[in-house]
Design goal:
Layout (H helix, E strand, L loop, with lengths): L2 H15 L6 H17 L4 H15 L2 H4 L4 H17 L13 E7 L5 H14 L4 E6 L6 H12 L3 E2 L6 H14 L4 E6 L7 H14 L3 E7 L4 H13 L4 E5 L8 H10 L3 E5 L7 E3 L2 H8 L5 H11 L2 H13 L4 H13 L3 H6 L4 H7 L4 H12 L3 H5 L6 H11 L3 H22 L7 H4 L14 H8 L1
Parallel strand pairs: 1-4, 1-5, 2-3, 2-4, 5-6, 6-7
Antiparallel strand pairs: 7-8
């Protein structure tokens, strides 16, 4: 997420921090680079102009010149102004007497139906009882798609194939009241903001539903066009929020920065994965941290709390301290880590991880191979890898599609990791990590050769 713009900002900020004092020319040069980085990220030109003007006024003022570290102060100003551009604070859904009615609108192909199901799953995980309404009667497979997604997340789906959308919505609201459901999420047909007939139909649906929230689903991959779509819908219906989808695949990130500033409508949710759980509340400060390469520790903690069992995690930590951590324990933790999403995305939430990820090529498929090897072992072999003889290695290799050499390498690395855990738990400090990773052993200390070495030289 935001790889290109994050790399550019890291380079700019690195040069700023290295300077003891900043002249007005230094600030102007840095802001020119920031301008290029934002434009390359497809941020709206007007948004870039206003953003840089606010930063420049503060950066050439007394708060930088009187600072002990001017470079860091400029970084702080850019960070604060980026948060202001993104929306200052998280905008939660409005509170309303049940049922809370949410109208989901957007272009066809923006991921609207899937997003409606993701939103239902998100709200259900927070204690709400949602009803999905299949009001998209234009696309043939839309109803079946929503029903399939509803079954996966155990959320009821209401539809009437022969009704017109406004009448269907009226019936759905009655059904929600009958079933004592407190949230109604209406999935509407995709439409262009310039299509007057379809926009008129959307206005009729909105009039019938009287929604507390009208959320526009915007594909972040469309860049500048996402802003035009948002503005076009806002002119036609009373939008209360945006949901940006495919943020995990948008290397530029311009739509996320521009949409809020151009429309004045807050971004309430962000789609960050293809899975049904790939939707999260949008936090401007956390998003600014990610864009500027500062990580996102709070989101990482939240994901960990959702996917790791507290008791199991404490049990695993105790085993690590005692040096009793087995391949079976590793597999359980591995499964929980996978539920958090792509490993690269998870690591990118750590502050300063951007430069590290450039040096280390981490692929989820490589970890899948490790998982395949461990799953090809018997429970006894996972608990006690010393049981794995040559014939067992051949059986494991055949079952996982790997080679005995791969099995040997995994067992060696796991054994080294176990020894490292014992040393750390025993207070002996960290061992040589290069050796554990398969690198060169540590060089001997520099000094005079021993007598034994002198004799060997004479020979």
């Amino acid at each position: 997420m935001f790889e290109s713009i994050s790399e550019r900002f890291e380079g700019i900020f690195g040069r700023l921090r290295s300077r003891g004092r900043l002249s007005e020319a230094d600030v102007d040069a840095a802001l020119r680079e920031v301008r290029l980085a934002l434009l390359e990220a497809d941020v709206n030109v007007g948004v870039v102009r206003e953003f840089l003007e606010r930063v420049r006024i503060r950066a050439v003022g007394s708060e930088v010149h009187q600072s002990l570290s001017p470079g860091q102060q400029v970084v702080k100003i850019v960070h604060e102004e980026l948060i202001a551009t993104l929306g200052q604070a998280n905008a939660p859904l409005r509170s309303a007497s049940p049922p809370l009615t949410i109208l989901v609108v957007g272009l066809q192909g923006s991921g609207k139906t899937t997003t409606a199901a993701k939103l239902a799953r998100h709200l259900k995980s927070n204690g709400r009882r949602p009803l999905l309404v299949a009001a998209d009667l234009q696309r043939p497979a839309a109803i079946e798609q929503l029903q399939t997604l509803g079954e996966r997340i155990d959320v009821p789906v209401f539809t009437e194939r022969t009704s017109r959308p406004p009448r269907l919505v009226r019936s759905a609201l009655k059904e929600a009241t009958r079933l004592s459901l407190d949230t109604v999420i209406i999935d509407t047909a995709g439409r262009l903001q310039i299509d007057r007939d379809l926009m008129r139909e959307l206005a009729d649906i909105s009039k019938e539903a009287k929604p507390h929230e009208t959320l526009l689903v915007v594909d972040a991959m469309t860049g500048q066009e996402a802003v035009n779509v948002a503005q076009g819908f806002k002119d036609q219906v009373p939008l209360t929020g945006l949901i940006l989808t495919k943020l995990d695949g948008d290397a530029r990130g311009g739509a996320a920065i521009s949409a809020r500033a151009v429309t004045g409508v807050p971004i309430k949710f962000a789609g960050v994965g293809e899975g049904i759980d790939g939707l999260e509340a949008f936090h401007p400060e956390r998003m600014a941290d990610r864009i500027l390469g500062m990580g996102d520790v709070l989101t990482l903690i939240e994901k960990a709390e959702q996917n790791f069992d507290q008791a199991e995690a404490e049990k695993a930590a105790t085993k690590m301290q005692k040096g009793q951590f087995t391949l079976e324990d590793f597999l359980e933790q591995f499964q929980a880590l996978k539920r958090m999403g792509s490993l690269k995305d998870v690591l990118a939430m750590l502050p300063g991880a951007g430069s590290l990820l450039k040096q280390v090529n981490i692929e989820d498929r490589d970890l899948a191979r490790v998982e395949g090897i461990i799953r090809s072992m018997t429970p006894e072999e996972r608990r006690n890898p010393k049981l794995i003889s040559g014939s067992r290695k051949r059986r494991i290799a055949a079952g996982s599609g790997r080679t005995p050499t791969d099995i040997n390498q995994l067992l060696k690395q796991f054994g080294d990791a176990q020894r490292m855990m014992k040393m750390v738990a025993g207070g002996k400090g960290m061992p040589n990590l290069g050796a554990i990773a398969g690198g060169r052993p540590p060089r001997p200390p520099v000094g005079r050769p021993t007598k034994a070495k002198k004799k060997s030289k004479r020979r």
